[in-house]
Amino acid sequence: MENLKTKAIIKREKIIDAAVKVFLRKGFEKATVREIAREAGITTGAIYHHYRNKDELIHDAVTKHIHFISDLNAYKGDSLKPSSEIIEEIRVATSKRLSNLTAQRLHILLTANVLLDENELLKEYKETYESIIKKASDMFVYTYGIENEKYKKLVASILVAALDGFAIQASLGILDTNDEEYINTITDFFSKLGQHLIIKS
Questions:
Q1: How far, in Å, CA of 70 to CA of 131, rounded?
Q2: At the N or C end, where does the chain have fewer CB atoms within 10 A?
Q3: Closest by alpha carbon to 147, among 198, 103, 96, 107?
Q4: pLDDT at residue number 56
Q5: How far apart (Å, rounded) are the C-alpha atoms in residues 9 and 4?
Q6: CA pair distance 104, 172, nearest whole angstrom
Q7: Please, are residues 112 and 62 in contact by the beta-carbon 8 Å criterion?
Q8: What confidence score (pLDDT) does residue 22 get?
Q9: Please, which residues have CB within 8 angstroms of residue 25's CB and are 6 or more apart in sequence?
Q10: E strands along 25-143, which residues?
């Protein structure tokens, strides 16, 4: 049973990787499931076995590449990790996210797509965004002990907004995604902001 689950995960990742290539090449609107299947070297039926429609595949593909914070965990088993370890994990994850130009372009592409065509995908995207902000705000609680709901959500929203802004600048070539200096600056900024809000909260 475990082997079947592993194969299914590998197949989905193969589909997502192929979808990303086609989306970036053709855009969401013009990309077809047939083209994605061809890129992945599988049948369209195999894709529909994992995804009901193209919108569901778009959502999965973008979520995997963009919303890195959903994979972060403040706990190791039943114990809360030291705050320094959590901060370092956030720093590493942020660095990977900001240096991934594919993820940046996908993010801009999806945002434009859902805002221009208000459909079921817009609702899913909004819900995903809200869950990411919630997860980010929880990470600030674990890391800095910020329990004030207003402040922790504000800091999380600023963090997500900053990443969105960097996605635009990276996609336009304004920022060098290989430059670690600005990534470290971002991490330092939010670390200091978190410490500042401990005092205010």
A1: 8
A2: N
A3: 198
A4: 85
A5: 9
A6: 10
A7: no
A8: 92
A9: 31
A10: 75-76, 79-80
Kindly list the structural domains of the chain, giving each domain's residue range(s) and its CATH number in brackets, ordered by start.
2-51 (1.10.10.60), 61-200 (1.10.357)
Tokens of 145: 């002990």
- Listed as ranges, residues in the chain with pLDDT below 70 are 1-5, 65-70, 117-119, 146, 187, 190-201
The set of residues, in sequence order, having a beta carbon less than 8 Å from that of 49 and lying 6+ positions away, is none
Reference 114, options 55, 161, 165; nearest CA is 55
Cα 51 to Cα 87: distance, rounded to the nearest angstrom: 35
Q: Are the C-beta atoms of 50 and 132 separated by less than 8 Å?
A: no
Rounded CA-CA distance 107/97 in Å is 11
The residue type found at 39 is E
DSSP class of residue 177 equals: T
- The DSSP call for residue 31 is -
Contact 167, 107 (CB under 8 A): yes
Q: What is the pLDDT of residues 88-132, one digit of tens each?
A: 877 777 777 777 777 778 878 877 777 776 667 788 778 888 888
Query: How many CB atoms sit inside 10 A of residue 25's CB?
Result: 11
